[in-house]
Amino acid sequence: SSCPPCPPGSHSPAGTDGRICRLRHGFLQIYHEGVRSFRKDVNGSQLLRLVRWPRPPQCPYLVGSWQWGHGIDCGRSGVCPPAWEAAFHRADILWNSPDLLDHRSCLDDRRQALRGVAQAPRHFYEGPALPPAHAARRYTLSYMGKCAPPAASWARQHGCRSLVRPRLNASLHGQRGNDSFRVSFVCSDELGTPDSAHGGRIKYSASVRERYRRSMNSTFVLVPRGDNRWNYRFSEAVGACAIPVVLADGLSLPLEPLVDWSGAAVVVPEAAADDAATLLRWLPPRRRWDEMLAAVCRINANHFATRQLRDRSIVDAALLLLRNGSSPAPATETPGGGGGAPGEAADRQGGGICVAVAATADRVGALHRLATSWPGLLSVAFLSHNFTRDAALGLRALAAPGGSLPASPGRIALSLVPNRPSGARPYVRRGRGGLFGDLFPTNLLRNVALDACGAADVALVLDVDFSFCCGDVARTLDRYARAVRADTGLSYVLPAFEAAEGEVIRSKGELLDRLDRSGAGVFEKQAQASHACDRLEQWRGATEPFASPYTYMCEPYLLVHRSVLPPYDESFVGYGKNRLSLHYELAARRVRMEVAPDAFVLHERGSHASRSKAWWAGETCWPAFRKRVWEAHGFWRSSRRQRQLDANPRVLQALNRTCGACVARSARLCVGSCRPELARWLPGSRKPTLLPPSGAPLEAPECPGGTAIASSSEPARLRKES
Questions:
Q1: Could you please report the per-residue DSSP string of 120-162?
Q2: Which residues on adjacent β-strands are paired with residue 414?
Q3: Which terminal Cβ of the chain has fewer Cβ within 10 Å, N or C?
């Protein structure tokens, strides 16, 4: 009811309550009628006339093709005419196409995909119904098709010929498997003949078509890219209740997120085509085959079996995108987008603000909550225990157990960090925590995430299990970001609170009411010192920002200009002092703090990781860190609590174990001047930038036998001065 009526030339599909205006533009129909006519309309004027009325981003157009086939093509260069570029970046348009990168078919990683829903390729399986059971299938793995596009094909004309099929042929040609794993692989350019009357389209004889239908009687069907990333074989495999094995980097699978493909399809990087053994290792274990076959059958029955089902599923998927917060907000501000004022799109996305987090596989659920609550640039440093696999998956390494990606993945920068860098010891040694627990490289990951923030000049480093609340967060934080840009010595504190698992807090007033009634939302006593700079009592009634002097051991979440943000000290591994060290150094640099009265972050109680938290690990690094800060800035702070920690038996035991050095040195980890190899995807990129390792791991300290450390306290002169 809050959406305006659909303009002439479009309609609101049944069941959408007016939230979507659907239209099919003549551009694609003209393309199918012939290249000459297609060129006449290449400026996109026909589409732009239909969508000349801008709509709210939450009530978008859904733009698709009259034809059940090709998507949008901008030619060999991948550079589209200006009118089409403007349409691609409209905040009020969702697209549906067999491939959301199809408008740039030659370029997998040059620009980000269109916002929208990938549709099922238009073909249907024409053979008999097949049972969803591996034992009843003729083959385990099959492929039948051409090895290379013909000379007159679209791919050859546009210089987009893929080598995936020839590489598969080199590795699988002649393979027949055995009785328990039967393989049928037919890759030949002699299967059909080009039909010049239909633009070089291949014609197949009846016998070849019958052989092709028989090849679908398989548990797994290879779906390698051909002329384009997408091909008709995907829909035919689903219709045969066979599990598609997709080799097409950058391809968006049909009807995501409505359809969960994680248990019904196998996505394999194109690089695996070079080696049969590597390819087969990507297949799921045999015990899951029947379960996956049944899942494919359900998907076919619910979404693929008829054109009407496919058409309806596109609309349902678009509605789900809007409901999940992945509504069409452009990843970058571009000319002609949405009819708003210049800079409005940037404001909606947080402008030049980068939220940086460290994450692991066990925190993906928390990462999804954060991504849903923050519509701007999100930089994630992900510690991977299987670097090769996750590097092939790319952003899919962040998929939830159901297979869905975080909201609006096109504005996520992902940096993949191996748990075991080349030539170095692993950071986290599962089951071998010992005295110091898990030596998790939190500060290394934070620095890696900040490095990927690009041109964003204001940063907020959060823990991954926090999320934002409430209202238009991006616009609120952008107001404070402008103040930070005007005075780089100023930073803003976002108070932090706890919420029960699944609890929804919609406003500051609701949070205060919850605090008054039950005290819910306040951190446990041991964490309250960390949030002393939040100034809760003063924040309750504040309507304007107010100063918050630095208090020793406080570590609030800060919105700060990156020009004054020092690197996190990476020697703090494991638990204790890792975040506090940065705030101590910011205080030494005289960066002032003010508390934002209308912004806060929420931690979901119960979402802590299972890593052991040996707080004394951080204490081993604290003396050397404070000495460095003193020498650089003449700044020293302490407290009675810190002096108690200095004499704590656990701390002394830890220091004796490390010979008085930081635990990162005694463990010889790759931190500080040592950098592990990285795989990095910037927002919108489809292929990673690979950064080689550099530097050497820390050297273990010399440890004379019999030396005992009686205290870790600071020198008497500095204690007296502090």
A1: PPS----S----S-GGG-SEEEEEEE-SS--TTSHHHHTT---
A2: 380, 681
A3: N
